[in-house]
Amino acid sequence: MAFPSSVLAVGKGTDISKVEAICDFLEVYIHSILFSRKVYPKTLFEDRFAYGIPVKASRHPELNQYIIDAIAAVKAELSNAAGDVMVDIIDGQGGSIESFVLELTTISGSYESKHDFDLRAALIRMSTLEPAAELPKVSI
């Protein structure tokens, strides 16, 4: 699993839109949630770096494609208007177990490297939160 080049180029001032930057971050964020909440076995993840910090990324092609497809749907919505993004962890019956909300104030303009600090902080903060409940295990 390789994250988009924008998440690897910390402080390089990559010239991408904020929508692209949010979607790139969302990809890293989702992988981090799945690992930290132990939704899938630890062995499914490998070490990567994003935004200058170590993170975990899934090695499973079907899961990775599912994440990419979900982000593509979010990207289409973000391109039309600003709004918050919610990531839900759901059980086998479609019930929400835990939710993470990314509050977005403005989407227009270009991404600036000064935003890397906020994105790093969000990843670190999420990884230190205690789960709301015991999460079900998913077999692959």
**CATH superfamily assignment?**
HORMA domain
Give me the count of strands. Answer: 4
Number of domains: 1
Element-by-element helix/strand order: HHEEHEEH
Distance between the termini: 17 Å
Strand neighbour order, sheet with most strands: 1-2
Return the CATH class.
Alpha Beta
| Strand content range | 15-25%
Count, helices: 4
The rounded Rg comes to 15 Å
What is the makeup of the main sheet? Answer: 2 strands, antiparallel
The CATH architecture classification is 2-Layer Sandwich
Helix-strand category:
alpha+beta
Uncertain parts: 5-14
Oligomeric organization of the protein chains: single chain
Helix content: 40-55%
Can you describe this structure?
The protein has 140 residues and is an alpha+beta fold. It has one domain (5-81, 108-128): 2-Layer Sandwich (Cell Cycle, Spindle Assembly Checkpoint Protein, Chain A). The protein has helices at 5-8, 18-36, 61-80, 116-128, and strands at 45-50, 53-58, 85-90, 96-102. Helix 2 runs antiparallel to helix 3 (61-80) and helix 2 (18-36) packs parallel to helix 4 (116-128). The protein is globular and about 35 Å long. It starts with a helix and ends in a 12-residue tail after the last helix. Residues 5-14 have low confidence and may be disordered. This is MAD2 mitotic arrest deficient-like 2. It comes from Kickxella alabastrina.
